[in-house]
Specification:
about 170 residues, globular, eight-stranded mixed β-sheet, Thrombin, subunit H, two-stranded antiparallel ribbon, mainly beta, signal, single chain, Peptidase_S1_PA, 3 helices, Serine protease, Peptidase_S1_PA_chymotrypsin, Glutamyl_endopeptidase
Length: about 170
């Protein structure tokens, strides 16, 4: 269901095939291979547009602080502040955050400060390169303080996995 806004949508595409990096039947650990790509039964990009991806070196990503934005369907949006504009419950309208950063890389995962919550896994972290938007990472997981529930840092998957999957150089 592309372009879901306030739980409303026009089109539905069925998933024909799933390519995934982590089999959670084997492990529930956070992994650099925590990604999934869905092959749909008809191309929605012709109607809704398409955002490509770019594999960017971590040093370039971390050098460009507050240069990225994040979109996701998290369970905490719309929150009380925005609920007056939407009739749908949280998770049925995408949230957007501008000015987030990728701060470092550890064990093959990017660490970022974009605001995330349950449900936003797989959401794109997007950068504008030469005037065009590109997905530069995929939100993976969040790490919280177990006592307070406060976010400490978030993890993202680097896009080079997709280059390898598609044989793109």
């Amino acid at each position: 269901m592309p372009n879901v806004i306030d739980k409303n949508y026009e089109d539905v595409a069925e998933v024909e095939q799933v390519y995934y990096g982590t089999d959670f039947k084997q492990s529930s650990d956070i992994s650099a291979n925590d990604w999934a790509i869905l092959k749909l039964n008809h191309p929605l990009g012709r109607k809704y547009g398409h955002v490509g991806w770019k594999s960017i070196p971590t040093s370039t990503l971390t050098h460009n602080q507050k240069a990225f934005f994040f979109v996701g369907y998290s369970r905490d949006f719309p929150n009380d502040r925005y609920q007056k504009y939407f009739s749908a419950r949280p998770g049925w309208t995408a949230s957007y955050e501008a000015g987030c950063s990728i701060v470092s890389e550890e064990s093959g995962l990017l660490l970022h400060d974009c605001a995330t919550a349950k449900g936003s896994s797989g959401g794109p972290i997007i950068g504008v390169i030469n005037g065009n938007p590109y997905i530069v990472a995929l939100n993976n997981a969040e790490y919280k303080d177990s006592r307070t529930g406060q976010d400490i840092i978030n993890f993202a998957v680097k896009m080079d996995f997709l280059d390898k999957l598609t044989d793109r150089k």
